[in-house]
Amino acid sequence: MKNLPIPAFILALSSLVFGCHGKDEKHETEEHGHKIVVTTPLAKDVVSTQRYVCQIHSRRHIEVRALETGYLEEVKVQEGQSVKKDDEMFRIIPVLFQANLETEAAEAKLAQIKFETTKLLSDKSIVSEQELALARAERAKALAKVKKARAELNFTSLKAPFDGIVDRQRAQQGSLVEEGDILSTLSDNQVMWVYFNVPEARYLDYRARMKEDEAGMKIQLQLANGDIFPQEGKIGAIEADFNNETGNIPFRADFDNPEALLRHGQTGTILVHRPLHDAIVIPQRATYEILAKRYVFVIEPKGGETAAHETASHETASHETEGATHEAAAHGDDGAKEEHHPKKGSMGRGVVRQREIVVQEEMEDIFVIKKGLTVTDHIIFEGIQQVRDGDEIEYELRSPEEILQNTKFHAE
Predict the structure, then answer these.
(1) Of 6, 48, 71, 324, which has the fewest beta carbons less than 10 angstroms from its beta carbon?
(2) How far is it, in rounded angstroms, from Cα 208 to Cα 203?
């Protein structure tokens, strides 16, 4: 009877020990349950969209100023009104200018009579040639004064130099205006000039691919309310100088404005859509950044690794083998390199290597790669936090189509 407590104690202790051991095994299993997922870059035609804040200007936007001093006799236009070329907009009281013209015309007539008389006397050798030349000069001077007086009279009537829209009126009927005073502004909105600043790197890319991009490039204008302006634009000009402070250079896009929706001074966003053919794309999640440089983890296959192939089912293996045959035929030597990697959807082992990449375009959820990767490389998509350079790991290989099936290739 005294020995009974001992077996019971041992039994309880054993149960506790084995229970803890079971929990440790379960915890270890859960830790290893976080699989490392590997995929490959995908070559695909995508559309790159670049956004730039812009300022909208009329092709012609001028100030209508008084050309003479006087009282504003008549205002013949309303604010916001459309006018045609040579339509009268303002008139300054012309009485003084009309009187001046009549005076100068009389002086010119007197000079003409004097010239004719002097010429008649000169023909008879009664007066010298010098007096005739002086009379001729006085006549020319008088005629010039008439021309000037007529121009001053015309300046009292201000006409539209082109078709346009009248802006706010700065002076009302009856106001005394001085020469040079602004009466209003006039805008030609048939074609709008939209200015936006482009960084130097983007400018160089544009110039390098200008001929091939022009055919497929699409330029749109997003208005302040988010709507897209119905007319597409085209690059009209690139200014001569970079801004030393910002490193940008102004571009100008031209937009037809048949409905006069756009007005001088508006703002918006320029959208430059550019097609990229056979671009190498990867998920942004597959990358990480260190000191402003971007990296991926690339998997190098272990030589002679075949265990992965044994984990796949016969049906999957035969299907993937057929796909690999076509891929090898398409890529030549690149296909041979993939023999050391597992088929997509199966498990494999390899060595982790850190590699720097250069991103050409950043799009929604993906990066377009300029340098550092090819479509035959294998990169870690999930599990970046769990590995280091040089680690030997077991991973699951998934196709890039599966990884990117929910990714938008065109940034809306």
Answers:
(1) 6
(2) 9
Token pair for 250: 């102004």
216 vs 70: CA distance, rounded Å: 57
pLDDT tens per residue across span 356-394:
999 988 888 899 999 999 999 999 999 999 999 999 999
Cα–Cα distances in Å, from 405 out to 34, 42, 138, 283? 22, 12, 91, 11
- Please tell me the total number of residues recorded for the chain in this structure: 412
Looking at this protein, which amino acid is placed at residue 127?
V
Q: Return the pLDDT at 99.
A: 85
- The DSSP H or E segment spanning 104 is helix 95-123
Torsion on CA atoms 227, 231, 234, 235, rounded to nearest 10: -40
> Closest by alpha carbon to 57, among 252, 241, 237, 270?
252
Statement: residue 28 has pLDDT above 70: no
Sign of the four-CA dihedral 196, 200, 202, 205: positive
Q: Are 93 and 75 spatial neighbours (Cβ–Cβ below 8 Å)?
A: no
Task: With a cut of 60, say whether residue 339 has pLDDT above it.
Answer: no
Q: Is the pLDDT of residue 216 over 90?
A: no
Q: CA separation (Å) from 43 to 50, 236, 343? A: 21, 33, 19
3-state secondary structure the chain: CCCCHHHHHHHHHHHHHHHHHHHHHHHHHHHHCCCCEEECCEEEEEEEEEEEEEEEEEEEEEEEECCCCEEEEEECCCCCCEECCCCEEEEECCHHHHHHHHHHHHHHHHHHHHHHHHHHHHHCCCCCHHHHHHHHHHHHHHHHHHHHHHHHHHCCEEECCCCEEECCCCCCCCCEECCCCEEEEEEEEEEEEEEEEEEHHHHHHHHHCHHHHHHHCEEEEECCCCCECCCCEEEEEECCCCCCCCCEEEEEEEEECCCCCCCCCCEEEEEEEEEEEEEEEEEHHHCEEECCEEEEEEEEECCCCCHHHHHCCHHHHHHHHHHHHHHHHHHCHHHHHHHHCCCCCCEEEEEEEEEEEEEEEECCCEEEEEECCCCCCCEEEECHHHCCCCCEEEEEECCHHHHCCCCCCECC
Neighbouring C-beta atoms of residue 363, cutoff 10 Å: 21
What does pTM read for this prediction? 0.66
The structural domains of the chain, ordered by start, are: 34-45+278-403 (2.40.420.20), 49-58+188-275 (2.40.30.170), 69-185 (1.10.287.470)
